[in-house]
Write a structure and sequence with these properties.
- The chain has one domain: Cathepsin D, subunit A, domain 1, CATH 2.40.70.
- With 119 residues, the chain is mainly beta.
- The longest helix is centred in the first third of the chain and has 7 residues.
């Protein structure tokens, strides 16, 4: 089993995986037609391949597809809205405890404690 640094991004429409990770955990599948994605810095990137990934969060099994991108910076994978909706994931922010909760069907599945740093 391999542990990945994953970003759950409510601003990303689709899931994306770093090419170096996709080459190890899956077989890249060429897209029938390349697609252009808009990056957070408003740049564009052409995507030519996708792959299927299988993972679990606690007892919840997830199998879905992700677009393959050459470089995702500090993360191995971005879980986008399409995947979160398909598996009933909800992101909740609890300001009192500085927690982000990923829940499924109103059950707490995963909890993140946040650390804030001043700039």
């Amino acid at each position: 089993m391999r542990m990945l640094d994953v970003l759950f991004d409510s601003g990303a429409s689709q899931s994306v995986i770093n090419k170096r990770v996709a080459d190890v955990i899956s077989i890249p599948i060429p897209l029938p037609n390349p697609i252009n994605v808009i990056l957070p810095n408003n740049g564009k990137k052409e995507i030519t391949h996708t792959c299927t990934f299988h993972t679990s969060i606690d007892d919840s099994q997830i199998s879905d597809s992700a677009l393959i991108m050459e470089d995702l910076g500090d993360v191995d994978m971005v879980i986008g809205v399409q995947t979160m909706r398909r598996f009933g994931m909800i992101l909740q922010f609890n300001e009192e405890n500085d927690e982000i909760i990923i829940s499924k069907k109103h059950e707490k599945v995963f909890l993140f404690k946040l650390k804030f740093f001043s700039c």
